[in-house]
Amino acid sequence: MPLLIAPDVRFHSSWLEGAAEFDGSRQDGAGADGWPLEELKDAHTFQRFVDALVIDALPESPRKPGLVPCTYLWMVEDGTFLGSLAIRHGLNEHLLNQGGHIGYSVRPSARRRGHASAALAAALPVARDLGISRVLITCDEDNAGSRATIERNGGVYEDTRGGKRRYWVEPA
Ligand SMILES: CC(C)(COP(=O)(O)OP(=O)(O)OC[C@H]1O[C@@H](n2cnc3c(N)ncnc32)[C@H](O)[C@@H]1OP(=O)(O)O)[C@@H](O)C(=O)NCCC(=O)NCCS
To answer: How many angstroms separate the alpha carbon of residue 113 from the centre of ligand 1?
Structure first.
């Protein structure tokens, strides 16, 4: 089963391989919006990216208006980057209705092996320790993999808003 670790430049080449597999589709929970893959091939740029992910967890870090602090974690196994997970520390209007507290993605070559389920299970105590007593997790109506991931982790369905199924989990 994968470990959840803080972003680390040691995974540079593996992260790049994993990101390339998304082939332009959204890498949920990666925090990579605005960081073109071509530019992340440069070691210094990748270091800046990793630093930006890590400091986003600090309330005092600069961020765009309305955005909340976020803890980014990577799923890794045997030195290989498998996926990303983001824990938003609070809910703004968009997150309450659509995005939820936690987002994640698994690189295409590592899917259907239980990694998302295990990563979400490992992330729930982290969320609890961040003071989130009820965790909101959402998925698109037609995202069977994410839906199963949430339901396997005890997600209690509340409703669907704008095509997003919304679930609450109370971390043990
Ligand atoms: C959704 C996603 C994270 C699932 O990752 P994963 O590591 O393959 O998931 P798991 O192996 O833990 O599978 C969890 C459950 O989903 C099921 N599942 C996974 N992918 C599925 C698919 N494409 N269709 C149907 N069921 C699927 C599995 O069978 C498993 O359920 P089960 O154990 O009851 O059989 C992955 O497909 C992904 O990264 N998708 C793109 C990004 C995304 O959609 N993120 C979620 C945003 S809300």
So the answer is: 9
CATH number at residue 81: 3.40.630.30
The pocket around ligand 1, CB under 6 angstroms, is made up of 28, 103-106, 111-117, 139, 143-146, 148-149, 152
Summarised one tens digit per residue, pLDDT across range 51-84 is: 999 999 999 999 999 999 999 999 999 999 999 9
Neighbour tally for 10: CB within 10 Å: 13
Q: How many domains does the chain have?
A: 1
Domain that holds residue 56: 3-169
